[in-house]
């Protein structure tokens, strides 16, 4: 099993939540996302937020840990950041795109969610590359 910097993985998970707080905030894409996702104000505000954020953090930890294993320790900062960008855009966002096509979801929703994950994995690559 590849060696993993668990502090870096933890920072990746934290960065994921911070990025999400900014990306899906009213200052950026909150309204557009809500409309494209077909959520009312009430629907967007309901749910067990502790569970939602806790699971989002846990899933971000899993994604960052596996990505760290994928990158390994020998990848340069530039290569790790580029790999993060490519993983976010070409694996995650492209996979969302396939689902959204069949679900007939709006392109705007794909751009918002795919853009978030592209930046999320770019940040993962940057953090993991800096802390190798």
Characterization of the model:
It is built from six helices and no strands. The protein starts with 5 loop residues before the first helix and ends with a helix. The longest helix is centred in the C-terminal third of the chain and has 27 residues, at 77-103. 26% of the residues are buried. Helix 1 runs antiparallel to helix 6, helix 2 (30-37) packs across helix 6 and helix 4 crosses helix 6 (107-130). The chain is an all-alpha fold. 80% of the residues lie in helices and 0% in strands. The model has no long low-confidence stretch (mean pLDDT 96).
**Shape field:** globular
Rg for CA atoms: 16 Å
Mean pLDDT: 96
Strand content: under 5%
Low-confidence stretches: none
Major beta sheet, specifics? none
Number of helices: 6
Q: Distance between termini?
A: 16 Å
Q: Report the count of strand segments.
A: 0
SSE string, helix = H, strand = E? HHHHHH
Percent helix among the residues? over 70%
Q: Which structural class fits the helix and strand makeup? A: mainly alpha
Provide a quick synopsis of the model.
The protein has helices spanning 6-23, 30-37, 41-45, 49-71, 77-103, 107-130.
